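Question thread 4412

I'm putting together a teaching handout and wanted feedback from people who do this every day. The idea is simple: show students a protein as raw sequence, then show them the structure tokens that encode its fold, then repeat with a second protein so they can compare. Below is the first pair exactly as I plan to print it.
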Amino acid sequence: VAAAAAMRQKYTADQPTAPPDALPGAQGESRAAAEYLEATCVVLEGHEERISGVCVLGLPAAPGTLVSVSWDLTIRWWRLLPSEKEDALIHTIENAHDDYIHGVAYSPLTHQIATCSADQGAKVWDAQRRTLVATLSGHQADVTHVAWSGVHSVWVTSSDDQSIKLWSTLGRQLRHIDTRDAISALAIDRNYGYV
């Protein structure tokens, strides 16, 4: 996992954006941009298979906490800015699902994450305690996407079984929508909650 993090080497907290000479059209653009990227890129290593999803947690998690999921069936919590005395890896849940994990999403309202998998299920996790809250069962094929609808405060899953399901934060199925076709992407409108 590679992630852009806040500056800690060359640039200070007083300069949270790219240095002025790294802006398009400025002199020294290439050199300054390369230095900026070098100063802000953190590579997180540990997954053994393809990384299939990432999300950044909000408060009450420590600033700069990232969660990644992988085909290696793990969920990993990371510090984007570890100190010299800390490891970047905070916690790992092994065998989080029974088959490939396809994605992860975050709910800032409930401070939960949800993961979806080829095992035909999705799971909701407490992002702070790193414990299982609920298993979302009911799809008949790979659950390919999961998203949080902040407007309606529900989890939304899509599946190769040609359906979309809406779920409570505790795992109760609220609605089933037949799509009559495979779903290759899922997005939630932040203003009105359209799926």
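The second pair follows. I'd like the answer to focus on this one:
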Amino acid sequence: SALEGYQGDVANVANDKSTSQQECGLKLASKVEKSDKCFTFSVGEVVEDEITKVFLFSSHPSGMSLFSLRNATREFVLTQRARGRTYNMSPTATIDFHSELGFFVWGTNKFYLLDPTNVSSARYLNVDDQRLAKHFQFERKKKVQPLASFEWIEGLKKVLCFNRYALIVDEEGFACEDEPSIKWKLKGQG
């Protein structure tokens, strides 16, 4: 497969002082494009100081990668690579770009936000919200798994879909109504 030896290639390229960050990013972006081991990816645009920036955020067996588009060459260049428990604990189920937030929303065992302009990541749901207590209990027991996230038509509300239900939250990660907002009812269940 195209990503066999991906980790080795990353290390070799990163340790080769004659290879520029751009060359490193182009090599990795090529592998992302051809890979059957890319779990998921999303592309989004952020307008900052009247300049449009395009980002690609992808998930792989070895972690996650953020690329930015260089307008002059029309090529994606590696901006940041992340490894560790949060980034490859379990396969990333979803990466979605939310234009209202200007962030990527991604989920492994929990939903997280990634601000591509300053490459900062944080948990999305607000742990101080008492209306989410039942959800956090399910999370601790590993009974919920993120599936997808959507922007809600009304303002900055988001729908975070899990395997058991969906939550409607605001841009700060607070529940907009009592949890769960939407329950899935499968055929054959009472």
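Top answer:
Good format. For the second protein you could add a caption like this: The mean pLDDT is 76. The longest strand covers residues 51-60.
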